[in-house]
Amino acid sequence: MPEIVINLHPRQVHEHPHLTPVEARALNLAAVTDALTAAGVDHFVVRGMDDRTPVVGVLDEDRAAVLAALPRTDYVTSVLPRPAVRDQLHPAKAGSTWRKLAEATVLRMVWFRADPTHHLVLGPEYGCDVEFWKRTEDDRLVAPRPNRVAKVLPAASVNVDVPASVFTRLLPRGGASTLRTRPEMGVTLPGEIDFPIDVVYTWVDGQDPEWQRRRAEITGESYHAEASSAARFLNRDELRYSMRSLHAYAPWVRNVFVVTDDQVPAWLDTTHPNVRVVSHKEIFSDPSVLPVYNSHAIESQLHHIDGLAEHFLYFNDDMFIGRPLAPQAFFLSSGLSKFFFSQSRVPIGPITEADTPVDAACKNNRRLIEDRFGTTITQVFEHVPYPLRRSVMTEIEETFPDEYARTMASRFRSMTDLSPVSNLHHYYAFQTGRALPGSVKYGYVQLAVSDLAQRLARALARRDWDAFCLNDAFSTEEEMLAQHAVLHPFLEAYFPVPSPYEKS
Question: Which residues share a beta bridge with 320?
């Protein structure tokens, strides 16, 4: 077993070629429950407060048997009482370790698991907690700390099998895998999401000669330099890594739809049952307006995708999930979607030639919202995955048919565009009681900066963004080549594990 230095300490690591957070979580839980089962120690899985960390409950009266049964490999630490030194880990094989922890009410068994490159290392956050529950005189069990269900359980309950997805929101609901627990732990809580959530990407390979030929046949319709910049259409393979981020950090996603202009990424496994490439021709309500090279136009038609869930996330291919996120980051269990305000503002006043395409579209959105609801929008939204609802988009299309059709038919970004998914949807849904503000820790990196390497190194070292975007609009071809030399190693290090959507 190799050793690597983590936070200045040499640690043993277990290598896994297809490592994901939910796999690490499952392996660590199984290591504890299998050991307790083999020793004949009664135990049950607890619905803990952290989706990453599995929890097993045992009886305090069985403490000696529990401590004797727990694995003597890798590491262990006290959770309650808290250790005097933060992140203090003890070697589980040392007898002195267990004497130090003999009175702990919550222990954490820790294994360090890594992909073969050691770029992805999952440690204490995914370790398995062991809670010692005390039996009272009236035959009840009392937890040593809060969980998602109950502080006190009847001791007489008989253990039952429930779906493993009950114990972490990172897994899709249901599934064949089960875990042994008290029946009270298997209840459905009000905040749980049981509806499917899909993901939609728009993607283009701007280096494809056939696509370049088609685009060259239509000229002179772009009104702003940003709308026709080559950087907007550059394929840096971001989609591959964005889909890796989904697989690693949002495994509850049901299906992934990739909307393209009859293009297919060479690496994408189109036979995978949960991925589908969708042509513009399949979703445009008026295909005669095609081809289009305007993201606003394409985005206006996403809700026409056949089979798309009512609730879905829209990604540009430069958006990534940065660490494990539950679906509750984007939706409420009631079905409401969330949106994420930016500190940026929509410029006051009518559209001018100095406006960017984004600002012009926001001003058009503002006029519609003012006319419909009597409120004036001033903020824009963070460039993170957008939580959307098909029914809201359908209603917007029906409510503003002329403006919507004009956007759909705009081949290049135009001063008459709406921005349906990045702005208008959120305000319309908010005004009609179907959305509310949310919060995610978000990172945005503009690639055309002189300190790009330093910014990416910071992101890789900390891995503390829920979501992030690597955006470019104005770089020259020479700058783009230099960026690629920095960007590709960063993406490969941040997301080293291939997703099942890639050809083997």
Answer: 468
Q: How far apart, in whole angstroms, are the C-alpha atoms of residue 303 and residue 98?
A: 57
Closest CA to 28 of 113, 90, 107, 102: 113
Residue with tokens 């079905």, as numbered in its chain: 335
Tokens describing residue 438: 């949310």
Q: Which amino acid is at 51?
A: D
Phi, psi of 191 (to 5 degrees): -85, 0
Partnered with residue 109 across adjacent β-strands are 76, 128
The string of pLDDT tens digits covering residues 324-336 is 999 999 999 999 9
Q: Which residues contact 502 (CB under 8 A, 6 or more apart)?
A: 240, 243, 267, 268, 269
CB 188 within 8 A of CB 173: no
Residues 366 and 363: their CA atoms lie apart, in Å, by 5
Contacts 24+ apart (CB under 8 A), 226-229: 226/356, 226/357, 226/413, 226/473, 226/474, 227/294, 227/357, 227/412, 227/413, 228/412, 229/473, 229/474
Judge contact between 424 and 418, C-beta under 8 A: yes
Token digits of residue 106 = 């919550």
DSSP string across 159-182: PEEEEGGGG-TTSPS--S-EEEE-
- Give the CA distances from residue 484 to residues 231, 478, 489, 490, in Å, rounded to whole numbers and listed in that order: 12, 10, 8, 10
Looking up tokens 């230099």 gives 482
pLDDT-based confidence at residue 234 (cuts at 50, 70, 90): low
> Residue 89 region, left (φ>0) first, then alpha (ψ -120 to 50), else beta?
beta
**Measuring CA to CA, which residue among 15, 55, 63 is closest to residue 39?**
63
pLDDT of residue 411: 93
Structure tokens at 333: 């269990």
- Range 247-261 average pLDDT: 98
Over residues 378-434, the pLDDT tens digits come to: 999 999 999 999 999 999 999 999 999 999 999 999 999 999 999 999 999 999 999
3-state secondary structure labels for all residues of 306-362: CCCCCEEEEEECCEEECCCCCHHHCECCCCCEEECEEEEECCCCCCCCCCCHHHHHH
Query: What span, in angstroms and rounded, lies between the C-alpha atoms of 54 and 167?
Result: 8
Is the distance from CB of 22 to CB of 122 less than 8 angstroms?
Answer: no
3-state DSSP call for residue 257?
strand
Q: Of 9, 94, 501, whose CA–CA distance to 277 is shortest?
A: 501
Q: Is 153 exposed, middle or buried (0-12, 13-18, 19+ CB in 10 A)?
A: buried
Helix (H) or strand (E) holding 368: helix 357-373
